[in-house]
Amino acid sequence: MAARGRAGGGGDGRDGSAMSLTPMDVRDEAVQVWDGRLRLHVKVTGDGPPLLYFHPLSGLAWNPLLSQLAARHTVYAPEHPGTSPGDPHAISEVQTFWELLLVYEELIRALGLDRPVAVGQSFGGMVAADLAASFPQLFGKLVLMSPLGLWRDDAAIPLMAMVAGPPEDMPKYLFAHPDSEAARAVMALPGDPGLIPKAIAQGAWNVGCTTKFAWPIADHGLGRRLHRIGVPTLIVWGREDALIPVAYAEEFGSRIAGSQVEVIDDCGHVHQADQPERTWTAISKFLDS
Amino acid sequence: MKVSLFEQVPYRYIPDDYGDHNSSVVTAPYQVVDPDRMHESIFSAYAELLHGVRSGFDGIVVTEHSQSSYDVSPNPTLLASAVACAAQAEGLDPAIAVLGRSLGKTREPLKIAEEYALLDCISGGRLIAGFPVGLSYDANLNASLPAIETRDRAREHRELILKAWTSPSPFPWNGRFEKYGAVNIWPRPIQQPHPPVWVPGTGSPGTLRDILRNDYAFVYLSWDGPKLVGRHVFDRYWTLAEETGRDRNPYRLAFLQVVAVAETDERAEKEYASHLMSLYHSGLGAIPGTAMAVPGYAEPAAIEAMLRAGGPDGMLARMRTATYKDIVDSQVAIVGSPATVADQLEAFVREFRIGNLLVMMQNGSMPRALTEKNISLFTAEVLPRLRPIWDDEGWEHRWWPRAAAPAAAGTAGTEAR
What we know:
The structure holds 2 protein chains of 2 kinds.
Chain A: E1 27-33, E2 38-46, E3 50-54, H1 64-70, E4 74-78, H2 97-111, E5 117-121, H3 123-134, E6 141-145, H4 159-164, H5 170-174, H6 181-187, H7 196-211, E7 233-238, H8 247-255, E8 260-264, H9 271-274, H10 276-288
Parallel strand pairs in A: 3-4, 3-5, 5-6, 6-7, 7-8
Antiparallel strand pairs in A: 1-2, 2-4
Helix pairs in contact in A: 2-3
Chain B: E1 2-6, H1 18-21, H2 35-55, E2 59-62, H3 76-89, E3 95-98, H4 109-122, E4 127-130, H5 136-142, H6 150-166, E5 171-174, E6 179-183, E7 197-201, H7 205-214, E8 217-220, H8 225-228, H9 230-243, E9 253-261, H10 265-283, H11 300-308, H12 324-329, E10 333-336, H13 338-352, E11 356-360, H14 368-386
Helix pairs in contact in B: 2-3, 2-14, 3-4, 4-6, 7-9, 13-14
């Protein structure tokens, strides 16, 4: 695989060096946006029509779903500002969630992508959904995997408790099967003990960079904009999601005209770890349609 | 040197096994509280501060924490104001140090400018203005502000408050976090150009540089005592002071120390041990480590360095399980007869060049009568040994309110060295 050419690779995904688990060629493209004040790093791999993947709170970590997508699409996976190793203060160039949306809109133009498919997961789902609502011509199709972005008092999202709680409690929010091999792989720290401090520090900072726009409640008024989304949309949710309750699947579904909701049984917040096959079936069917 | 009474406001009737099951912050269950005992706990803190002023402390020091069982002091200017009025009525002139309203936590920074100014006016110009960033649990969980913005927010608020105090005419403020059309606060501080600024911190190089560049006083507000991390932090401080071109004036520095004094060493242990341990086990020790650094609060390089050094410095991370011997041997608390306590204090004060000692005399469940005994013995038998420590060097204390009792050295008004 192509090395990213920067320090900080630990190989587990939690240190922000997303690429080392992938068997494929992945290149790192640095794109200047925001009047030259930001150099966004985008991981690019695969072949076919363009697809953007917006990562969750913890940063970009490679996972089997991305490999599956890359088998049929050219996957562009941007790293949220501040989460690219070696450039932690990039986050201070993006002051508000609205600015984050504008930054990504510039990025998509800079990459020259014409109506790419957008896949957004959790925090990235909120980003993708709001981009689609704010810029109705931006995407060709939209896949939202348990997105943040809405709030219901009767279905509280324990984001703050998870982020500020003990790390050993985190899997119970993320997985229906926290002890599965796939779940452990997501949470694993580098095998080399010398790399662990950097991995933990980068992981915490990544969450600091994303929660900047999701704290304490990730509601920027998306619910009042979702009606603007006009592209074919798939909403995927795990029925046992302990971070963002499945009640939100219908909240998104009812607000996005013509959208399709897939609730996956026996599945938590990280679909591709708990139910990789059913997740891929739902997404690939939608992309084929 | 200046020696002040530092007091937090714990609820004093926390059950013994509280820390085994509960956090002392954020989610601390209020069901453990009996309202009458809450009244007594809070009133005792006021009474003890006043007792300290009457007994001869140079100043009083209070702090802010919300949603906390170990410091029920969501707004320390209320506490400080009551003590300032009572002291004044008796003709006493202590410095009033609020260390302070948290700048990274507030959503209303002009309220801090106004309250501090009011306090300076109430006290006749005896306020020391503390400008802490604020603890992560308080700013990022209690106040629910994004962790990664805490320091930027504190920086802007400090700038705004100083301008609100010093600008001769109304001004607009177009900040990143705050916008105001016409800032024109009433009252303004009596002390000109503004009250002395003390900045509490844990001693990171970035914070120390900022403090030195601005010529503020640095308050090492740790509960670790001088032994565990003192050398590290103070050596760094004085090295940076030299690099920044600042003099070696000890009054630039303040240090917090838990102290308990009795007639003999044996009696001190007997009287104070259980109360001290209630602070460490159910108060400070029951703050979850994760609540001290919500992701984004600390820079990645700082977290990495901390992990490589084997975890957080000092005692805080292991306070909940520390033994009395751990606490006393490490000088997290200095406990004993007046001679024992004075010897230990004098040694590190001289070694680290500390010009302002903040002494915490009430801890956890310690009742008012015992706290007042602690205060009386300390002020009668320990304080006289400490006060002249820096006199022979003749430095001016430029971080002390002029209206408060003058420095013993009597060099006010002249630039030392």
